[in-house]
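Subject: Putative phosphopantothenate--cysteine ligase (CTP)

B.,
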Amino acid sequence: MDATNGSQPLESQAKAFFDSAPPLQNTHQITQKLVQFIQHNSSPLENGDFKRIVCVTSGGTTAPLEQRCVRYVDNFSSGHRGATSTEYFLKAGYAVIFLYRRGSFQPFCRSLPDDPLLECFKPTDDLNIQVHEAYSEAVKRAVVDHHAAVTGGLLLKLPFNTIFEYLQMLQLVATSMRCLGPCAMFYLAAAVSDFYVPWKDMVEHKIQSGSHLLDVQLVEVPKMLSMLRKDWAPLAFCVSFKLETDSNILLNKAAIALEKYKMDAVVANELTTRKEQVVVVTRGENIIVQRDNSHSGNDVENPLIKLLSVRHAAYIKDSGSGK
Ligand code: PAZ
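Prediction pasted inline below.
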């Protein structure tokens, strides 16, 4: 495989990406859901403040190699970070738009086994099933909390698979959230493809075996974080993530991303320790956030979301408006 780098201005690269992407199947439905969700959560609270809405992205995007896709390049992310963070954002009083990779971890399912349907239930006779005693509390909590968040209009879940779907959906979400000004937050935990095959250059049918060389030309995905910051939702509080496997370069790379994309914070994490510790890189300081390991049910996302929620509140106050 070969990769090339675009030298055009970002706006033209972004336009070329969107113009050539296969259009989303259900743009109208997604837009309607977003409008309703944002309207529902936009009335002032009793204390005069506005509800904060966060878009949490989660899971990895795929970059297809064929239009009728059989093979694709994937990005590592189980979706655990995004799903767990969503729960803590809800607890902190946010409404959450959860933009997630289909099949990745879901909010409220942390305490369930890998195959919840088959492992949590057992047959009582030929016609009936019941929840296994060992999981009854966990299943009840998951179902009750998920139901309350969704029916209460506090959690909107939008699935994606490909880089084309993800970026089109992120643009829709961000432009819909623009009206929230600084009350909007983006928490971009998804692992997004850096390279892709443009739709027009992609073969239609399954690539055939027989040749020892897979000749695929990859192109760099335009840096849409800049589009988010500059055009889509310029006043939003933006938190991006930086994942590295070499801890020696992690903080430097995060600091570069903070400046380059004008983020409000970059959460730096190393692959093997990501569930234990992250570093929140901001303009003033680097803050180490650790999981409290005195109890096995604790997650690093708990203190992380508390910290970001406080920073976001200060950001809203500094911007001089509740909205
Ligand atoms: O989804 P997960 O819990 O397995 O992992 C989370 C993560 C490492 C994908 C996330 O914290 C992250 O760093 N996302 C951005 C990855 C990137 O640099 O593209």
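DSSP finds nine helices and 15 strands in the chain.

T.
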